[in-house]
Amino acid sequence: MEVFENIVAINHRFSLFFLGLLLLLASALSLANAKTHYHDFVIQATPVKRLCKTQNSITVNGMFPGPTLEVNNGDTLVVNVVNKAQYNVTIHWHGVRQMRTGWADGPEFVTQCPVRPGGSYTYKFTIQGQEGTLWWHAHSSWLRATVYGALIIHPREGSSYPFSKQPKRETAILLGEWWNANPIDVVREAARTGGAPNVSDAYTVNGQPGDLYSCSNQDTVIVPIDSGETNLLRVVNSALNQPLFFTVANHKFTVVGADASYVKPFTTSVLMLGPGQTTDVLISGDQTPSRYYMAARAYQSAQNAPFDNTTTTAILEYKSSACAAKNCSSNKPVMPPLPAYNDTATVTAFTTSFKSADKTLVPTGIDESLFFTVGLGLNPCPSNFNKSSQCQGPNGTRFTASMNNVSFVLPSNFSLLQAHHQRIQGVFTTDFPANPPRKFDYTGNVSQSLFQPVAGTKLYNLKYGSRVQIVLQDTSIVTPENHPIHLHGYDFYIIAQGFGNYNPRTAPSKFNLVDPPLRNTVAVPVNGWAVIRFVADNPGVWLMHCHLDVHITWGLATAFLVENGVGELQSIESPPEDLPLC
User: Fold this and answer.
1) Cβ(139)–Cβ(106) under 8 Å?
2) Are 133 and 150 within 8 A, CB to CB?
3) Burial code of 380-417, b = ≥16 C-beta within 10 A, e = fewer?
4) Using an 8 Å Cβ cutoff, are 124 and 78 in contact?
5) Distances from the Cα of 272 to the Cαs of 9, 102, 262, 337, 402, in angstroms?
6) C-alpha distance from residue 495 to each of 263, 356, 464, 575 (Å)
7) Do residues 567 and 501 lie in contact, with contact meaning Cβ atoms separated by under 8 Å?
8) Rounded mean pLDDT of 491-517?
9) Tens of pLDDT along 244-284?
10) In terms of pTM, does the model score above 0.85?
11) 223 falls in which pLDDT band (50, 70, 90)?
């Protein structure tokens, strides 16, 4: 018997050794297949004509939108950014985990000082364990209105998509906003007046407004499809300030991914994406060969707030011989119905359909239980301001915004990460409140005394490995609104969403701890709340903010300082030699 047990033990040890050897070989093979991609981004002013008007827009390499970057899971990107424009600039790689490479994340004065005109900086980072659609964009002022592009992450070499049917074609669909003005001038004028900035003049698909706008018919984007094909659309909301509905006439979508994570497939006829979010969908060529409009327009949850109510279009065009025989290219495209601008019911049905493709390891045994209110505010007109020209918010005030009543202020002499790394005092504090300073009826009638937040550069400190839960609560201060909240450096699980005030006694019964979606941007429901969880396993300083750029301009942000763990692999890398100086 003893001999038999010894033989079993030896076999078990050998099996474990053999399994470990296989894993090492697989890892080595994966590394051997990984590639490094080199790109040059020249930031420059370029004449761009839209809506009958030509203006100098800031672009990358003279392209609007900018270049699409394609990599495989496990690859490394090296992007040299040269600034030939008149403005400071940084580039953010939206949704990339940036494990230990926080210096490459990109938000101005958070992880780096800006690249000044005439300067350069090389971003270097590896894509690890992410597949699907992300994107990149400027993270300085409102430059991202025209400085953005898709970042497509294919499966590892030799792997395929986990779909029942592999797509024949892939098309990136970048939804954007266009102003018949310099976006920097638009936000500077709003900062001067204290009022809301002018809304955009058009929405765009891959930089083109589409043929419902003046002077736009000839350049409307054509997306090809053939009868019987299944194609992959990679939809990105790269608009500055507007959540958007997106649909295609007579066609349904099968949603298969979001924010570079796979989801359980589900069918829908309409998407809603907050700025910053991505959604991967399969679309089948199962309709009569013809031309069909792809259309996007606003989801507007804020009450009595001005917004761009126009509709952008592209055209899904069948390329089959049957269509060619009927000269489909001359057909007027079929227009799809679109939800009402304030159709929150459709938004809720869509956003609550997301579930991770596989069972997940949702953090439990929470170490940091946080509650953050998000919303707008109003500052009284300073005594030295001209009330009629500099205080054009409601009732002679100036707009502001906050999390937990703190309106975030970026530093100007150092980046937050640099100040943390070099232990520079006086740049920030780590006393961001874990809960609202005052409890109130968040979604009810709010006292005027709560309208004015406190300005500050306050961070929240997290120990490496902390299991974090955050309740994000919308408020009706000024107006309730759907807020797309983005966390840099992390993906997180959205374990619950609801309306009204979050109730800690009843809400946990709704928590999905089995297969919640993994996202980097959560659309906090208008007059509602969302609960997210993540493990603080990426040291550095990581911005969390509303991705409506007007709101981050007003201070709807905070940042997490995640401490180093034990040893090199749990510590942020040293700053690169060419890191820009302030």
Assistant:
1) yes
2) yes
3) ebeeeeeeeebbbbeeebbbbbbbbbbbbebbeebbbb
4) yes
5) 56, 30, 17, 14, 25
6) 14, 11, 22, 35
7) no
8) 98
9) 999 999 999 999 999 999 999 999 999 999 999 999 999 99
10) yes
11) very high
- Comparing C-alpha atoms, which of 495, 441, 445 is closest to residue 470? 495
Output the pLDDT for position 464.
98
**Nearest alpha carbon to residue 374 among 199, 506, 525:** 525
Which amino acid, residue 532?
A: I
Residue 77: which of 128, 148, 14, 10 has the closest Cα?
Answer: 128
Q: Which two tokens stand for residue 435?
A: 């809960």
- 455-474 as b/e: b if 16+ CB within 10 A: ebbbbbebebebbbbbbbbb
DSSP 581: P
| Angle at CA of residue 395, ends 391 and 396, nearest 5° | 20
13's tokens: 């040890």
What residues does 559 pair with on adjacent strands? 459, 543
Give the other-Cβ count within 10 Å of 26's Cβ: 10
Q: What residue type is assigned to position 17 of the chain? A: F
3-state secondary structure of 448: helix
Side-chain-facing half-sphere of 560: CA atoms under 13 Å: 29
Q: What is the pLDDT of residues 359-415, one digit of tens each?
A: 899 999 999 999 999 999 999 999 999 999 999 999 999 999 999 999 999 999 999
**Length of the chain in terms of residues written:** 582
Residue of 175, 161, 353 whose CA lies nearest to 267: 353
